[in-house]
Design goal:
With about 280 residues, the protein is of the alpha/beta class. It contains ten helices and nine strands. A hairpin with a 2-residue loop joins strand 8 and strand 9. Helix 6 packs across helix 7 and helix 9 runs antiparallel to helix 10. The radius of gyration is 19 Å and the shape is globular. About 40% of the residues are buried. Bound molecules: adenosine monophosphate.
Length: about 280
């Protein structure tokens, strides 16, 4: 069947209800569009988890700070629709802003612990916007499974927590980071990089990879992090917002290896802010 384009919450809800009434399982991939191979890998995973796959494209205003790139965020709906159709998505939810936020809109979901640190410290209110719009999208689509990329690792942990806390009957599936050949994590924002910035950008993954290997093989955490930040600056990155070892589930900072761990980083190159992360496994060189 041809891919359906749904622009209203009522239309999207009806699609979900119809599928569920036939006993079909629904998987969901929320996005902000400007789709790349990372997004499409989520669609592939989603298709393997259900009978019907829904993707959404919505550039959510409440997750952008006043000085962030909301108005300039890339919008390319026609190309995105083609990619989603090609990928075998059954329905695309593409609401206008007024469909999602009424004029007197006021409800927000807040996760004080998980959303306070790391990106949350540098982007106040960002994760309230993310969690709130996802709660709304989950209520409209009614998926059984929702797929999120590990690229936005803090976001993935926040979604897992919110779904458990608010009893959403949804299985959250995490998907590995898809990278360019030189290691740069794919991102809709990579198109902001100048030619010179693009050459600097892979240093982010290189620094994460090296630090993860060093911590995994016994280098003191502080020393590995210091060297990684130095490597980023030497490569041409500007301010580093954070480069931290954290508990993989709670995101609490770690000074020494302990349990499941993740290295998370955010830094600026030119006018672009890049984030990336990697697992740290002790004993794996
Ligand atoms: P966005 O459109 O940036 O909101 O991203 C939509 C979804 O795609 C989120 O779950 C992201 O984590 C995921 N995503 C974005 N880039 C990548 C990537 N390079 N690899 C895997 N997942 C990604």
């Amino acid at each position: 069947m041809a891919m359906q384009l749904l622009k209203t919450a009522a239309g999207m809800r009806a699609f979900g209800q119809e599928a569920r009434s036939r006993g079909l399982k629904i998987s969901f991939v929320p996005t902000m569009g400007a789709l790349h191979a990372g997004h499409l890998s989520l669609v592939e995973l989603a298709k393997n988890h259900a009978d019907r796959t829904v993707a959404s494209i919505f550039v959510n205003p409440t997750q952008f700070g006043p000085n962030e790139d909301y108005t300039h965020y890339p919008r390319m709906e026609r190309e995105d629709m083609e990619k989603l159709e090609q990928a075998g998505v059954d329905a695309v939810f593409l609401p206008g802003t007024a469909e999602i936020y009424s004029e007197d809109y006021q409800t927000f979901v807040t996760l004080p612990k998980l959303a306070g640190g790391l990106d949350g410290a540098f982007r106040p209110g960002h994760f309230d916007g993310v969690a709130s719009v996802l709660a709304k999208l989950f209520n409209i689509v009614g998926p059984d499974v929702a797929v999120f990329g590990e690229k936005d690792y803090q976001q993935l942990q926040i979604v897992r927590r919110m779904v458990a806390d608010l009893h959403f009957p949804i299985e959250i599936v995490g998907a590995p980071v898809i990278r360019e050949e030189d290691g740069l994590a794919m991102s809709s924002r990579n198109r902001y990089l100048s030619e010179a910035d693009r050459k600097v950008a892979p240093a982010m993954y290189a620094a994460l990879h090296t630090a993860a290997k060093r911590i995994g093989s016994g280098t003191p955490v502080a020393e590995a992090l210091r060297a990684a930040k130095q490597a980023l600056l030497s490569a041409g990155f500007g301010p580093i917002d954070y480069f931290e070892l954290v508990d993989a589930a709670t995101l609490a900072p770690l000074n020494a290896p302990q349990g499941a761990m993740r290295l998370l980083a955010a830094a600026h190159v030119g006018t672009t802010r890049l984030i990336d992360n990697i697992a740290v496994i002790v004993g794996r060189p």
